From TrEMBL:
This protein's record includes keyword Transcription regulation: yes
SMART domains: HTH_GNTR, UTRA
Gene3D superfamilies named in the record: Chorismate lyase-like, Winged helix-like DNA-binding domain superfamily/Winged helix DNA-binding domain
Keyword vocabulary terms for this entry: DNA-binding, Transcription, Transcription regulation
A Pfam family matched in the record: UTRA
Domain of life of the source: Bacteria
Domain HTH gntR-type: 4-72
GO molecular function, one term: DNA-binding transcription factor activity
Record organism: Mammaliicoccus stepanovicii
Protein name in the entry: GntR family transcriptional regulator
InterPro entries: Bact_HTH_transcr_reg (IPR050679), Chorismate_lyase_/UTRA_dom_sf (IPR028978), Tscrpt_reg_HTH_GntR (IPR000524), UTRA (IPR011663), WH-like_DNA-bd_sf (IPR036388), WH_DNA-bd_sf (IPR036390)
Length: 237
């Protein structure tokens, strides 16, 4: 991507408008005609500047609509630490809450039997809930654990699930294998999270282990991409 001085001039002008507060998050930037009139820059350079700022995630643009200042996600979730969603929300100065959708005991499926290393026909607690910040939905959570370790009846509060489990057992949950993928609109979950059809979600699928490497908890957490940004520190080897 080769950027000319004229393109940089337009980019810097838009960035200055954002930094000064002249342009707010979610607000449309001036039209290309207005920018051309103000800066005396040709249309192609303005279009390229806007395209680059969209690529750099400073601006957001939908097909057929003008560019807007992309709203910043208020929450950071570190992928290199085993941090509860409660702490993520509280770190942003908000009250973490839980809306329970269902608490059931079910017979383990073949997939869950393999993931959690359980016997055939074992029972698992299936906990379906939404984590909220000041009452607004942020994350949809589906958690599964052996009823021998954690019966559904033992969980009915805003306490972190990891903490609630550790209050029931004599070991600590020390690490988790995690995968992350982008999920487009999914009617059931998106509706629960009050997500727009264009609002993607990030799915964290995690298997949590104790310090002896025994699988304890299988979790699927759907984060609203418009609210949560993920962070990880990577070391070069």
């Amino acid at each position: 991507m080769s950027t000319s001085a004229a393109t940089n001039l337009v980019k810097n002008w838009i960035l200055e408008q954002i930094e000064s507060g002249e342009l707010s998050e979610g607000e449309c930037i001036p039209s290309e005609f207005d920018i051309k009139k103000l800066l005396n820059i040709n249309h192609d350079e303005i279009e390229k500047a806007i395209h680059e700022l969209v690529t750099e995630q400073v601006l957001s643009q939908k097909s057929g609509e003008g560019a807007i200042v992309k709203p910043k996600q208020p929450y950071y979730y570190p992928l290199d630490e085993l941090v509860s969603i409660t702490k993520m929300i509280e770190k942003n100065g908000q009250v973490a809450g839980t809306e329970f959708i269902s608490l059931d005991e079910e017979v383990v499926t073949n997939q869950e039997m393999t993931i959690l290393n359980l016997d055939e026909n074992a029972l698992i607690s299936v906990i379906e809930r939404v984590r909220t910040a000041d009452g607004e939905p942020v994350v949809y959570c589906l958690d599964k654990i052996s009823t021998d370790l954690f019966p559904c009846s033992d969980y009915n509060s805003d306490l972190s699930l990891l903490s609630a489990i550790e209050n029931n057992v004599e070991f600590k949950i020390t690490h988790a294998d995690t995968s992350i993928e982008s999920i487009s609109y999914e009617p059931y979950i998106s509706e629960i999270l009050n997500s727009d059809p264009d609002d993607a979600m990030m799915l964290l699928t995690q298997t949590h282990y104790n310090n002896e490497g025994v699988p304890i908890l299988y979790s699927l957490n759907y984060f609203k991409s418009s609210l949560v940004k993920f962070r990880i520190k990577r070391n070069r080897i």
